Structures are given as structure tokens and as C-alpha cells.
Amino acid sequence: MPGKVHFQFADGTMKGKAFVFDEHDTFIFGRAADCHARLPGDDTLVSRHHFLVEVNPPAARLRDLGSLNRTQVNGKKVGGRKQGETPEQGAKRRYPEIDLKDGDQLRVGHTVLQVKCESAAGGSPVCSEQVREEMARLIFEINAADSPAARRMVEQQVGGYIIEKELGRGGFGAVYRARRANDQQRVAVKVMLPRAAVDQTSVDKFLREIRSTAALRHPHIVPVLDVGSSEGIFYFVMEYCPGRSLDYLMAAHGGRLFLELAGPIILQTLEALAFAHEQGIVHRDLKPQNILLSSATHPIVAKIADFGLAKHFAKAGFSGLTLTGTYAGTPLFLPREQIINFKYAKPVSDIWSMGATIYHLLTAQFPYEFTPDRDPIDIILHEPVVPVRRRDASIPKPLAAVIDKAIAVNPKDRYENGGEMLEAFKKAL
Asked: Which of 336, 325, 328, 316 is nearest to 62 (CA)?
């Protein structure tokens, strides 16, 4: 039986109602129409989006979204801003988060919620906590990049590959350049560490799903050559792309690309996205870091990496808490609906992320006006996107129309899939 997190309304206008989560999701409380728990609009003690809880049973983390009256956890006030203070001013004190525990009580005005956290039952952990913690220490806590000790440990866990060099780190692990021992073929090895102990049933299910996705074959999708796990640590062997990722190419060109260079890369990426959507597969984590290049010089061949990986990793419960906490990055390429409905994984969400990626390629900026003194989640929930020609008036109007349609806040206003966006982009060039 999977773990669960319950939110039971013990007092207030929603008394008697309950929300139960048995997989990774979000729970938003407030007065806005898109909140999961929506209080009456005239309740002045509650903000439009008052707080967000990210749930990955049995873990749950609350994040106050700059509410005027704050959120109380067991009688202690969390977050909020002072009377007369704008959300931006309140954000200068940061948006604090708090991990919820079984038995905690949340209060906003007259509304009281009881929290119940249940751990998963059955299934023995397959990972050695000592091994997982040591690898996490080597990858995340050692300051020096490309740690020899981390490379040696990856070799021990993966087997059959000679690890040569670290290529990059992310929220869940690291990527290494390697050689396959039996034929010396150069490959990339991605190691991912679950944020919690996993049982064999969960491991087997995740590997089945990811192998199905890994079977995708297209000239502009990075082929996955091998998938496996060792003591609950997952590894993915992929084609090695010497040109690294698109964000490195942007940095080499001063932070942005002119259309002459970006156009072919965008077309190739959209071709891959159209193909995947035709197969019923959604990426869910499109961004410049997941678009790899055959080389950094002409001719450049672009390939999308990690198809479905983020989706399956989160669905399996391995990802921990990815919108909140130390390892969560700013959701620069995340569509609004994936905050409101974390499990939402449709082609239109990939379209927004692709549109945001193109926007960033051409302008070095993002569709939302992110500022360091304001919570990015609050910005995504409340602010409109900035039309791309407001960033750069030199972008041709037909192309700007394609980008602006792709990054529409309402999914119904976007292209339905990669194929539609591909055709529109071709016509706009």
C-alpha cells in the first residue's frame, strides 16, 4: 500500500471535507478559483493563493505564498507580510517553508486543517542507505567538481563502464562521460539518486516504464542505450553528445542566439517533439539543459534528452519535493498548470516549455518577469507573461506570434502538440 497524506478540515466553512494524496502532487489553499481548497471570496483573512503544500507521501512541505495574515502551523506563524506591505516587499524576508508531520495542525483565520501522514506499507528497501548517502555526499556535498571519489563509486554501482569525467550535476544526480568497457564506445552515464529508500516493486515498475519511453528512436532524440539500477540507485546510459547542452552554446555566444543559428536548432527540436507526441509521450521537463548538441560548431545537430524521465521519476515517488526545498530550482520553464496540477502531463505543457525555451534563446530572458525579491511561484500564479517583442522588437512579427501562442497561460490557447507548433514555426521563418 502506498503512503498517504491527508488534510482534514476540522473547523471553518469547509469543515468535514478532506483531501487525500497517495502520490506526488500539489495542494493549494486560498480564495482563487484554481485553488484545490477554495474558501469564499469574501473571506478577508485568506489570500487568493494563501499557501502551497507539495506532497510526496509521506513527505509534505508547506510554503506560504506571501499571505497578509500568514499561516499558522501548530500555533506558530509561518511566512506572511506586514500590513500595507506589498508581496515584493514581504518576499525580501523570503518565503519560508516548513516540513509537515503527522498530527500537525494548520490554521488560517477560522479554518483549521489536521495533517495525517502515513508511510508506505510492505516492500523491503532495496537500497543500502549507507551507499546512497555516501553517493549523495560525493555528488552534492563535495565542493570540487568532477570528484575522483564520486567517479570511482559510480563505476562500482554501474559496472561495465569506465567513468572519465563529470559533465554536470542536477537536483537528482550527475552526468558523466564514460567508455563502455567491452568496445570502448564513448557514452554518457546519468546517475539518479532517489530522495528516499525504494522497494523492489517500485524499482521494477519504474524501470519498465522508462524502458518503454527509452525505446523512442528519432534523429533528434538522444538514444538511451542501457537502463538499470544498483542498490536503488538508477543509471541511464545514453549517446554522448560532445557539443554539450544548449545553455552552453548560449553562453558561448554571449547569452543568446541570433535566429540564423537558433532557427535550425528549434526546427530539429520541434521535429523530435512532434514525433514523441505522436507516440503519446510527454517530456514534462523541456529546457535548454535537456537539448543536447552533436557539436558546438557547424553543422549542429540538436537532440532532446531525458524524454519522460522526470515524469516517471516523480510518479514513482523517487523525486522527493521538487517545487520546494534545497534541491528545487526556479521553475523558469514550467507552465502554470504544472504548479496548480502537478500530475498534469499533456503535450500542451511541453508546448509552453518549448515556447519558453525559444523565448530564452532569442532574448536571454524569460516569459515571466522574475525578480530576486519575489517568490517565483507567486509570480507564475498571479502575473501575465510578457510578449516576446516587448523584450526584443527586432523579432519578426510572424515568429513572435508563434512564440506568444506557445506561452499562453491558458492551455486551450496554445498549440495542441509539437506537430502543430512545428508547422506554425516553419511558416513563420
From this structure: 325
